[in-house]
Amino acid sequence: MPEYLLWLRILILCVVLTLQVTNGQVSESDESDDEGVVEQYTLARTEVENELEEFYLTAAPGDEFDMHSDAMENLQEARQQLYEAGLPPRDVADLTQDDPGLAHVSAQIPYGISRQKRVIRAKLNRRWIHASVPYVFTNSTSKIDQNEIIRSMRTYERFTCIRFIPWSEENGVTTNNRLGLDHDNYLSFRTGGGCWSYQGNRRILASEGGQKIACCGGYTCVHEIGHALGESHQHQSPHPDRNRMIRINFDGIKPSGHISYQTLNASKVKTDGYDLSSLMHYTPQTFRVSDDKQTFYKFFPELPHKKSFYYMMREVSQEHKCQDKCSDSLLTCENDGYLTLVGNRCYCQCIPGLDPQTGCTTTFKNDPEDIAFPGGKYAIPAHSTGCPDGSFILGSRTQINEGKNYKKSTFNIGLKVSGKNVEQKFCIHDSPPTDKVWPGANLCLYRRGGKCPDGFTEGFVQYNDLPTQASPNTKFGELPDGVFDNNTRFEYCCADTGFSEDNLLLPSRKPFVLIKRRGKDCQNVRGMHIEVRSVRIGNANDGETSLVGGDQPMYKQDKETKGFWTAYCNYKPAMIDCGEVIDLNSSKTEVTISSPKAPELECSWLIKAPVGERLQLDFSDFNIKGKPGRCIDNLEVSYVRPGQPGINFCGPQRNKTTISIYNTIRMRLSTYGESNSHFTAIIKLVKNDSLCYEVSDRGMTYDGDVNFTRDYDSCLPWAKVSHCEMHPFKTDRFNTILQGNKCRNPDQSTGFEPWCFVKAENCIRGYCDVCQIGKRYDSADNCAQLKASSQCTLNHCAKTCADQYPQPNVPVQARDVRCIAPGPAPDGAPVVESKRSYAVGEVVKYKCDYSHTTKLRYCLSSGKWSSMGTACSECPEEFDLRVENQKCYFFPNIQTDADDAYKFCHGKGGFIAFPTSQEENVLLKSFTPNRIFLGISDLAEEGRFVTHTGDTLGFTKWSRSQPDNYRYSEDCVEMFKTSTWNDLPCTGRRRHFICQANRTPLRDCLDFSDNCAELFIQNPIMCKKFPTFAEKHCRYTCGYCGRDDSPSCNVSSPGAGEGDTSELAPGESITRSCDKGLVPVSGDEVRGCQRNGNLTGKPLECTHKCPGNWTLNPDNLFCYRKFDSPKNYKGAQVDCVEHQGKVATAADRDEQAFVFSMKGARGDIWLGLTDSLVEGTFRWADNKLLSYTNWKYWEPDNYGKYGEDCVHMSRDGKWKDANCVKVKLPYVCKVHVEVFAVKK
């Protein structure tokens, strides 16, 4: 094959512009390891194809693609995992077809190929032209598979202009040719290898068999088709708010799954927001290493993680130019709505509750004038009030059987059961077909006219009746298709082509009935509420046959009566003439909303603030039927993006303030049946200039005293969470502000506002209401009792116990705070002449008196300046000094070619780093696992490699057969992942790199940070554990200088320490541990030597530890032991007392987790919790009242004649009350560790 044709073949197969639309949520497919391996491979392959795209866009003739890039190496690893996954060889072959890393062809751009031709090819993109997606089902897909795929296709067709068209070829003319598409590609659905898809339209040749996809079923298929339409994973979104909403926990992710959580390149991904609830978002369990780990943690844990696809569909619609199909339409869609095709008509898709007819500017209060039931011939069950409109004709059928019929007394369907008589009424629809058709849905109809509507399949149910001459079977008016003689046979049309929770658009102002599909929920209809009613119709035992066949709705045959059970969906008009869209602004800063009191409400409100500002929601009156977690009626409140699902509120009160994350709050009140549910809400505008921190830096310069989260969880000291991603000892963040346990935001990219860590394990964090916008509230119901018994806790009873936990001083608005001009530093001064005062967030730059290094000070919300002890540093700004070799390094974590890397480092005052020893070679490799450029080249003289500082190499570590100057074009040097070196071209290869700068010795012995002494007290090992921080910030405190001017610390009784030293120098520390058989009870294991000659902390004290069959809980120093022999509660209690303890409690989340781990995966255990003294007032075995609870749904219920006064932990960790005497269970005893010390 000629070289240019070979190159074109590579280009067609591998090079495409990427349309990667970011939005969506996790699918079921992501839970399987094998399926995960496939997905890792497809993701890695996509990255390589992206690189190929960039290469062909920029390469000149003679250039060669980098076959050793990070992306290519990731693909190699992912491919190897695919080979080892045990998948069928055919599936692996299908998956790896045209793998760019396996192509045995030259990747070089041939000479003589014009750049214009390359650009035309490179502009081929991943959209599906005209929003048309041809597809085929391969022989590997069953009818069930195909139905699931069609369901997902219909979902896209309902919410976008995407249309899926069966692909075929006749006489050399394909569907693509007939549609006028500019590509030959089509989706080729198959089964095998799990659930997976490539991303976007890969423009594969028809002769190659189309673009393979295995999408399984349900929402998983929507997820995978989303990939094929260009969607990428939402948890990989480069949108900055992702890292402000979740923390990716790579320690909790299987190594093979890391690629699925890496942030995508912002230049290759289009995104207009982050959506935690999206269908394209993984769950926290996807690819986790163990059950006690999560792959990511939410910063707003209450936000739902649902299979939502509103924003996903909006992006698919917009990126496929659906709005352009409506260029003649005058419609505009506001409030996050979007213009697309519904059916063949231009239509606004709106967020829940808004009206498409008004361009999503008002709430939905009336059906559109032209709304109608679908045209054609079919029948539906009649409602007790008749048919829904004049397009239907009423008919009925009465059948006689042996009896044994059943229906509930409250039955609003036109179906009467009386003794042996069953009368069913029908609404017959006999109109010609119209453009209004049944969309994808889950429901059944009666057949009429000998044919089912499109998308429905046929079935029947035949009843064996027992009419007599005196009581014959009868009929009246028109009937559905069937046989109506001495027996009764109904012909049905059933559809299983949608998702039940999606709203159908049908007339909603009169009740109607549809037949429920077997195994599915009733299909939602906008503006309607649903109740499900089931009927059993008997069959006679007279030797004749009752039959069912095809796709029909009968879901059960009664074993005793032989009767058939069928369920019906009764649709009741909801009251929708309520709610509104409200704008708050500087002229209208507050609104009060009082809901109506009425049955069957469906009211929506959208409250909006100016973009960039937020809203505050409080309730002065709140009574929604049900209680949290067990709502009967509900008020859904969404305070993220308005199209995302909200949280359901219910109960007799709602005291917690809700503050929106963005600029909207959406509320929807739903009441069912007779209801007195209602609320009065006060929504206020939270103006940026009223806040106590500077909004432009998201509170990075906040310096207030609040030390608890918006949920009133106490903050942990920053110095105690040095294992987490943010702590005072990091040098690449605004760490000097991290003092004590106050709420802070050291990095704008990972926080909307100030926050803190609340749990050290897994580094759980929460946002703080530092400006005290929200009102105090109690989360426990028994706070008065808790306070009376001296059990006040801030996180449960912040309101009732306010006198014991007083609110910090009301903060001053940041706009009113000024910092006076800062003075000079001991070794430097401001670069620019100081102003008289500065606003919060303003910065003053200091320059060292004797070097070019600079430091920044920030005006804080307290009116003080950020900590700074010295203006001079040994390294330039952003560089860190490595103690092991006394050199300055900066790792920018970007990829570029060698020439641009040189310019970048030069602009920072340095050069590309290079090693001068094996130790430095290891040090440089520790910055990143990827390949890196080294500051070495032979550009000046071929074959003579020198450093970027002009020095001859004194140390080398070339890989085998390197350097080889391949194609006479390799003058720069990289370090492989194996730490060996390789020469490579200086352009056309993108690598990470590290900048290095010369060190400037300091003249003065000073701490850069004012709080070093305090940090050392909190973490005495900081100087040893964080040497870079110690050298950069705390040289004096850590004894890096001036040791001769400070006394040493005497250490008595070395004991079992790290060494037997009896004297410590300033900054040094010593670690003590208890002798074998003992555990610590007080004091400090680690103590450090301060500059004043005193040790930090207190001496360590120890006691005996738990015996071998008991387990210590270090949080409370109790020993726990599980006893597997089941006993009633009294027996368990007696046994624990004999062990000088009590039945185990779960008084807080931490003890709950510990006891759950003791319980084991299976079975239940008793908890030391009863309400035997006062019914409904539960007390722990130590007589303390409940503050933390973990009840199972609808528990406690005190069920049964003899009641339930004791509590047990069920298999899933939830609590249930149970009879103390009759129930026998295993149990866990808890005994304080001191008991065993006394025994010894």
Automatic annotation (TrEMBL):
Native source organism of the sequence: Elysia marginata
Enzyme Commission number, as recorded: 3.4.24.-
Source taxonomy: Eukaryota, Metazoa, Spiralia, Lophotrochozoa, Mollusca
Pfam families: ApeC, Astacin, CUB, Kringle, Lectin_C
Active-site residues from the entry: E224
InterPro entries, A to Z: ApeC (IPR031569), C-type_lectin-like (IPR001304), C-type_lectin-like/link_sf (IPR016186), C-type_lectin/snaclec_domain (IPR050111), C-type_lectin_CS (IPR018378), CTDL_fold (IPR016187), CUB_dom (IPR000859), Kringle (IPR000001)
Name recorded for this polypeptide: Metalloendopeptidase
PANTHER family attached to this UniProt entry: MANNOSE, PHOSPHOLIPASE, LECTIN RECEPTOR RELATED
Every Sushi domain range: 817-874
GO biological process: proteolysis
CUB domain boundaries: 578-686
Entry keyword set: Disulfide bond, Hydrolase, Kringle, Metal-binding, Metalloprotease, Protease, Signal, Sushi, Zinc
